Amino acid sequence: MIDAQTSASPAALVAVNVLWVGLVVAGIVFMIRRQRRIDNTLDPAYQHAPVAPAVVVERKFQYRKVNERRLYRITYRVHLAHGGHFIGWEDKYLTRFSGAPAFAVGTNHQVAYMPGSIEVRALPRKR
After folding, report:
1. Backbone angles phi, psi at 74, to 5 degrees
2. Alpha-carbon distance 61 to 63, whole Å?
3. What single-letter DSSP state applies at residue 13?
4. Where are the beta strands (DSSP E) in 19-103?
5. Integer Cα distance of 99 and 88 in angstroms
């Protein structure tokens, strides 16, 4: 026989479970937003640099991995406003399933570049 004073009411159990699920969902949403904010920042050195369209011509794994993110050397063909172009590159940590496909060969990106340098930075995409 179950003692009525030691068992919790079904309504209280449901309320506690709903509260628990709500906290878990809020934690997941917080982590996703934090990660997106990190991914949507541009290197401060390139904040006011000129911007040009570019096409990925090569993406090569650099055999380094940190927190499930792999380091890639991404090579771009950057098209300048006056009709010229140059080959630029950047090293970028990308996740295997969501980040790497966004930088597949042939994809278009806006990049910030410093005149006289071949190193570029891809601008964060709006989500």
Report:
1. -105, 125
2. 6
3. H
4. 51-66, 69-79, 85-95
5. 19
Q: Are strands 51-66 and 108-113 parallel, antiparallel or unpaired?
A: antiparallel
CA angle 30, 32, 125 (to 5 degrees): 130
Q: From edge to edge, which strands make up the β-sheet containing 120-122?
A: 85-95, 69-79, 51-66, 108-113, 120-122
Q: For the segment 87-117, what is each residue's pLDDT rounded down to a tens digit?
A: 999 998 888 777 778 888 999 999 999 888 8
**Residue 102 has which token pair?**
């966004």
| Alpha carbons 88 and 85: distance in angstroms, whole number | 9
Q: Can you give the pLDDT at residue 1?
A: 47
Residue bearing the bigger pLDDT, 1 or 41: 41
From the DSSP assignment, how many helices (H) and strands (E) are in the chain?
1, 5
Would residue 67 be called left, alpha or beta, if left means φ above 0 and alpha means ψ between -120 and 50 degrees? left
Which pTM was predicted? Answer: 0.64
* Predicted pLDDT at 34: 66
Instruction: Provide φ and ψ at 33, rounded to 5°.
Output: -65, -40
